[in-house]
Design goal:
37% helix, globular, 5-stranded mixed β-sheet, STAS_dom
């Protein structure tokens, strides 16, 4: 059974969702539920910190796309921070790196 730890914080740019562990078929519903409780205002940025993510499967990718859709529905942005080389490769292959804002660190994502 996979485990994921998540925390939500407030930053000057908007909400910050920190994920640690495995984002997969088992844990994705927990992240989706957390996303439902995050309120976004227009022009805010939902930042997802992936620095402690150890694994991400197709359901995890779908969850990140759902986060993007939530942000766009609120006239906000989604920013992914600290994406691993392996996950970045997958995003490049899928063409997602052209659709998502990706930053090397949370600080960079907050500072725009």
């Amino acid at each position: 059974m996979s485990d994921i730890e998540l925390t939500v914080e407030t930053t000057p740019a908007g909400p910050l969702l920190r994920l640690a562990g495995e984002l997969d078929y088992i844990s994705a519903p927990q992240v989706v539920e957390a996303l439902q409780h995050i309120t976004l205002e227009p022009a805010q940025r939902l930042i997802v910190d992936l620095s402690a993510l150890t694994f991400c499967d197709s359901r995890g990718i779908a969850t990140l796309i759902a986060a993007r859709n939530k942000a766009h529905a609120a006239d906000a942005e989604l920013a992914l921070a600290a994406v691993s080389d392996r996950l970045m490769h997958i995003m490049n292959v899928l063409g997602l790196s052209r659709l998502l804002l990706i930053y090397p660190t949370v600080e960079a994502a907050i500072g725009r």
